[in-house]
Specification:
Elements: E1 2-5, H1 13-24, E2 27-30, E3 48-51, H2 58-66, E4 71-74, H3 84-89, E5 93-95, H4 102-116, H5 119-127, E6 145-149, H6 153-162, E7 168-172, E8 186-187, H7 190-196, E9 199-202, H8 216-220, E10 226-230, H9 239-247, E11 251-256, H10 278-285, E12 289-291, H11 300-318
Parallel strand pairs: 1-2, 1-3, 3-4, 4-5, 6-7, 6-9, 7-8, 9-10, 10-11, 11-12
Helix pairs in contact: 1-11, 4-6
Length: about 325
């Protein structure tokens, strides 16, 4: 068994690959480049490729199928970058990972604290030795009503950890209510959550149904001065509607760890490049927006888990065992 790792980071993931390759007796090769039409040949002779969120097209699937690839291993919880039905048609299985939810949950709460307290403004001005107070007055999170959209593993953890701050918590989950969470949060309709929340945090998967769920219509239902936090997927928010409503001050602030069309930008050093993404450049210009480059997941335990699950998935396949991380369509 052999895995071709794409977009592999030499400084943190490569040592883990060597460790788990020895443990599971599965060979690997790697490149730090994202998959492309020019480098898919690297996977010839391999049984699987391992990728982070990136563009995987049907043409790529055709090539991978021709090379005999049996698995696409996502080093992420999300798998919306993979054309699942087409991969299935070509006989290629797709696997994702799970990891402890605390890393993303606590990061989301950090963004809530930073946006409510105008931390971007405070830090930027302190850097230029502007220590005046005007324009820096924020809100105490404890005085806010926080709406959590999605109460899966991460959303549930946000609610439990957030309960210690003393704020009122509203929750919405399309797939049913978690009885345990009712000790901390009140389940409401999505419309009621929009109407009553001072802070809204997104914790749902990227699907055709959730695409641009935060749009002009949903923003119009929200409170004036609402704060939006997104540590899930960039496609949940219509960037143009977000920018428009930040300009009108309908949205008071945003904390975004993800953004639309981030593939090919995040995880690269582009300090000497011109970035072809007008939305990200506009959002960076706003003093009330905190933009981080998809790093909510990035802790030692999570990275180890993401690499390990790639090898585990192939170990299960090699030994004809059920893979709990396999995506079914």
């Amino acid at each position: 068994m052999k895995i071709a790792f794409y977009a592999l980071r030499k400084f943190d993931e490569l040592p883990l690959c060597r460790q788990f390759s020895d443990k599971y007796n599965i060979d690997f090769i790697w490149t730090n480049e994202y998959p492309s039409g020019e480098n898919l040949d690297l996977s010839k002779g391999c049984d699987a490729i391992s990728v982070v969120p990136c563009k995987i097209t049907e043409k790529y699937i055709d090539k991978l199928s021709d090379f005999g690839i049996k698995y696409i291993l996502c080093r992420s919880i999300g798998y919306d970058h993979i054309p699942l039905n087409y991969a299935k048609e070509k006989g290629i299985k797709v696997s994702s990972v799970s990891y402890p939810p605390e890393c993303v949950a606590n990061y989301a709460i950090m963004l809530m604290l930073m946006t409510t307290r105008k931390m971007s403004q405070i830090m930027l001005r302190a850097y230029t030795q502007d220590y005046s107070l005007k324009g820096k007055m924020g809100k105490d999170l404890s005085d806010c009503t926080v709406g959590i959209i999605g109460t899966g593993n991460i959303g549930s953890t946000v609610i439990k950890h957030l309960s210690g701050f003393g704020c009122k918590i509203l929750a919405y989950n399309k797939f049913g209510e978690n009885e345990e969470l009712k000790k901390y949060a009140e389940y409401v309709s999505l419309e009621k959550l929009y109407e009553n929340s001072d802070v809204i945090s997104l914790h749902v998967a990227s699907t055709p149904e959730t695409f641009h769920m935060i749009n002009e219509d949903s923003i119009n239902k929200m409170k004036n001065g609402v704060i939006i936090v997104n540590t899930a997927r960039g496609t949940l928010i219509d960037s143009k509607a977000l920018i428009k409503n930040i300009k009108t001050e309908k949205i008071a602030a945003a904390g975004l760890d993800v953004i639309e069309n981030e593939n090919g930008l995040y995880y690269y050093n582009l300090s000497d490049k011109i970035i072809d993404n007008d939305e990200i450049l506009m959002l960076k210009s706003f003093p009330n927006v905190i933009l981080t480059p998809h790093t909510a997941f990035y802790t030692e335990s999570t990275v180890s888990n993401m690499v390990k699950k790639s090898f585990e998935a192939m170990y299960y396949y090699k030994n004809n065992q059920s893979n709990p991380y396999e995506i079914t369509v």
